[in-house]
Design goal:
Shape: elongated
Radius of gyration: 22 Å
Distance between the termini: 49 Å
Number of helices: 10
Strand order of the largest sheet: 1-4-7
Order of helices and strands: HEHEEHEHEEEHHHEHHEH
Number of strands: 9
Helix content: 40-55%
Strand content: 5-15%
């Protein structure tokens, strides 16, 4: 979204789609859209995400979850800049920036014939490797502040104690940023004040911190 917002496309649509959250048989119709009568239940024409993103950006999250057959169709769109709705007979030109993300090893999937090599190199124009949260713990404080603002609801001026922040910074975060987000949201819900304290954090995270930092009785 930051790439989109800082580009000439910022006044055009930004559309995100999670390829792993939509069943494979539905993902194609979500991306390409369909004409009325294209399949059972298609009672009206519906434009797809690619068409709706025309002029803007489409973000394909978890692209490694996309089927190989659909990968081939996506590759054709990138090459020709044309789409065709399911059940349609006419192609439509589109101008879309593609951004994709995955936490999988695509080269390994290519070797296993689970990801198309030609699509990989077509998408890999600019590659950004984002380190795991455990490898950039200096970001945790800013992320905690961001998630507090996001989930504070009717509460105001929510703070976090230095001790609670130290506990979060000490943890290894196997679930990465999503896990941190869930922990902050949980802490806000459980806190009986406007200050997130050690007692508001999950016990397993506190225990890991205490194993190396707390005084033994």
């Amino acid at each position: 979204r930051a790439i989109h917002n800082n580009s000439p496309r910022r006044n055009k649509p930004f559309i995100a789609i999670n390829c792993g959250a939509i069943p494979a048989e539905l993902l194609e119709s979500e991306l390409f859209g369909y004409e009325s009568g294209a399949f059972t239940g298609a009672t009206k024409t519906k434009p797809g995400k690619l068409e709706l993103a025309d002029g803007g950006t489409i973000f394909l999250d978890e692209i490694a979850e996309m089927s190989v057959n659909l990968q081939a169709k996506l590759l054709r769109v990138i090459q020709t800049k044309e789409i065709e709705r399911l059940g349609g007979i006419e192609s439509k030109k589109i101008d879309v920036r593609f951004i994709s993300a995955t936490n999988k090893d695509l080269k390994k999937l290519i070797a296993e014939a689970l990801f198309r090599e030609d699509l990989y190199y077509r998408l890999k124009v600019v590659e950004i490797k984002l380190p795991s949260l455990r490898d950039r713990k200096e970001d945790i404080e800013e992320l905690v502040k961001y998630f507090i603002e996001k989930y504070k609801g009717n509460k105001s001026n929510i703070l976090i104690t230095d001790e609670a922040l130290s506990i979060l910074e000490n943890y290894n975060w196997p679930g990465n940023i999503r896990e941190l987000e869930n922990v902050v949201q949980r802490a806000i819900i459980l806190s009986d004040s406007n200050i997130i304290q050690k007692k508001d954090l999950p016990q397993e995270i506190v225990d890991e911190y205490c194993d190396s930092n707390c005084e033994k009785s």
